[in-house]
Amino acid sequence: MIKNDDFQKAVELINKSSNILIISHTKPDGDACGCIAAMCDAIGALSKNITPLLFSAVPQWYEFLFAEKPAILDEDVQLNELTAGQLGQFDLILIVDTNSHSQLVKFNDYLKQNNAPLLVIDHHETSDGLGDVELVDSDAAATALIVLDLFKYADWPITEKTAESLFVALATDTGWFQFSNTDSRVYRACAELIDAGIKPTQIYDHLYLNFSYPRFKLMAGMLNKLELFLDGRYAVMQITQQDFELTGASHSDTENLINECHRIDSVEASALFIELKDGRIRCSLRSRGDLDVSKIASQFGGGGHTMAAGTFLPGPLENAKKLILTEVEKYF
User: Fold this and answer.
1) Is the Cβ–Cβ distance between 121 and 48 less than 8 Å?
2) How far is Cα 91 from Cα 282, in angstroms, rounded to an integer?
3) What are the pLDDT digits (tens) for 32-58?
4) Quick one: 4 exposed, middle or buried, by C-beta within 10 A (0-12, 13-18, 19+)?
5) pLDDT tens-place string over residues 167-193
6) Which of 31, 59, 145, 249 is a plausible cystine mate for 173, CB 3.0–4.6 Å?
7) What CATH number does the domain located at 4-207 have?
8) What is the largest CA-CA distance in the chain?
9) How many CB atoms lie within 10 A of CB 27?
10) What is the pTM (predicted TM-score) of this model?
């Protein structure tokens, strides 16, 4: 658990700041988007300027969390424009749901020349110790739990909108409460958020009953090429650039598709390999057993949690698949 002294340091940093930049990892998931939206609502209510900046687009199913779409680095603002202050002059940088240089892509270059203090709020085991002040709890099922604790420590009001954002973060990082990280702390937090006025059924519809046709076709193609190894205990899926072209889907449409193969009763671990335009392979890993996939990801410069991790690998695709299979075989 995080000490009250650390929460106090975080509150003091925020209180003495006027213009805050908030960022998260590339390919933002529900925890990242929910925490950013919640922090923007809370800090904005303190009459401070807070500017969200993402490194890739918000997936369509999380757009309802934001009144305005956050700016995207390299699309809405270039790195040299950010450095020149065209997005603002910031006296605090808030990083949520990551503490790793590898997840910040080009933004690392901005950090090198920026003197603003860094506040990190994160729950991942992988850490580069980026923050001047850090609220890190690797036992938390989602970063949203830490954000909620910060709200309560600071006595910031939890509006229905804020509660909705935090519930989305919790629900998605626990697989709608199906993953093994769903503990009593998660359920107690959700009860508080429901008491604040949210409607879980409507949130479920936003998140899981809104596939676009291209995304559905992408998933169908992915499952059609699914392979099982090691007596069915390890599932491998892949999505190529050709798959994106044929279906019209985008890279954000791949979120959570890796979980589909865990409907197979024999599957204990899985990998989804996504071919990127630059030739690299994005590898997502999941485990529902004793295999710690974060150890595998860390061998290739990635990281994450025991049950969910990821990394980038050099192409071609078949070579990337062999690299991970070799490591998985050692554990099975």
Assistant:
1) no
2) 34
3) 999 999 999 999 999 999 999 999 989
4) exposed
5) 999 999 998 998 888 999 999 999 999
6) 31
7) 3.90.1640.10
8) 58
9) 20
10) 0.85
